[in-house]
Structure formats: C-alpha cells, structure tokens
Amino acid sequence: MNKSILAIALTATIGLTGCATKSDLADVRAMAVKAQASADQANQTAQTANARANEADVKADLALEGAGIANEKIDRMFKKTMNK
After folding, report:
1. For residue 9, how many C-alpha atoms fall within 13 Å in the half-sphere facing its CB?
2. One-letter-per-residue 3-state SS of the chain
3. How far apart are CA 50 and CA 42, in angstroms?
4. What is the pLDDT of residues 24-83, one digit of tens each?
5. Can you give the pTM of this predicted structure?
6. What is the pLDDT, as a whole number, of residue 79?
7. Rounded Cα–Cα distance for residues 11 and 4 (Å)
8. What confidence tier does 6 reach under pLDDT thresholds 50, 70, 90?
9. Which long-range contacts (CB under 8 A, 24 or more apart) does 24-28 make?
10. What pLDDT score was predicted for residue 10?
11. Alpha-carbon distance 43 to 13, whole Å?
C-alpha cells in the first residue's frame, strides 16, 4: 500500500513538473558556469585583499618599531639633559 502511494505521488510530481529539456539543461549549465566564474572572481578579490592586509600589517609593525626607536632616543636625550 505504501509503495503504491509513493509511486502515485512520484508519478504526479513528474507529471506536474514535466521533463527537463535540453534547453533547460543548457540553461542550468550556463548558470553553473556563471556562478563558478563569480566564485573564482570573489576568490581572487579575497586573495588580493588578504595580500594587501598582510602588507599593511608589515608596514604597521615597521612603523611601531620606528616609533619605539624614536622614543628610546628621546628618553636618552631627556636623561642626558636631566643629568647636566
């Protein structure tokens, strides 16, 4: 009984939706190709952004290092003037 109900439901579904045509499949393939191209472009954009963020991080580290060196020099100069 359950198998026959399932078969009837499946047959009704197929009958209502119809069969996929070659044109439908071509449309789906075209959509898939377009989606893949968009995904590839998004991946490339993300990789570029990541590389630029890494460069900015390195530059920020260098700037902080330079600021630390400058602060040390200022501290030494201040201590020398205080000792005079």
Report:
1. 6
2. CHHHHHHHHHHHHHHHHCCCCHHHHHHHHHHHHHHHHHHHHHHHHHHHHHHHHHHHHHHHHHHHHHHHHHHHHHHHHHHHHHHC
3. 12
4. 889 999 999 999 999 999 999 999 999 999 999 999 999 999 898 888 888 888 887 888
5. 0.55
6. 83
7. 10
8. low
9. none
10. 62
11. 39
Show the tokens assigned to 65. Answer: 């290092």
Tokens 């990541």 — which residue? 50
Residue 62 tokens read as: 């260098």
pLDDT at 12: 63
- Write phi, then psi, for 29 (nearest 5 degrees): -65, -40
**In the block, residue with structure tokens 């789906």:** 28
Q: How many CA atoms lie within 13 A of 28 on its CB side?
A: 6
